[in-house]
Amino acid sequence: MSTQALSAAGGSHPHSNMQPYIVLNFYIATSRHIPQPILIMDYLHWWTSLEVQWQRAFGEVFFMHSTIPSEEEAERLFSTEVLRFAGPGAAYANMDFQLHNLSGLRALKQLKILVVTHHDIRTLDDLKDITGLKKLIYV
Prior knowledge:
This protein has about 140 residues and is of the alpha/beta class. Helices cover about 30% and strands about 10% of the residues.
């Protein structure tokens, strides 16, 4: 590139480096949802503390693989509003084993619709902190 193509500008005066914020403020105002960044260390801690049945469930139902999910996949999971866990006895099963509790869902605060069918679940206590849950289909 030619040195004549670029020239100094601003005369060494200070300038603002503020990131754009109007869109984010608009989103928060219209959706009433403040995006929460998922820190990779928090996510890894969450994943490794999950029961094996829940790691397997998320692998089969959401991630479609059995390895540790990427940070982007985790962000998608933590922001999803709808999940369906249909056990092996369901007409359209998406899992080949039964869950025995709902503990893996405790951290998914954004859930609005949850379908849990054909599992050996005895209590719904693990869902008590998911206050935005609007519809639960439990068979």
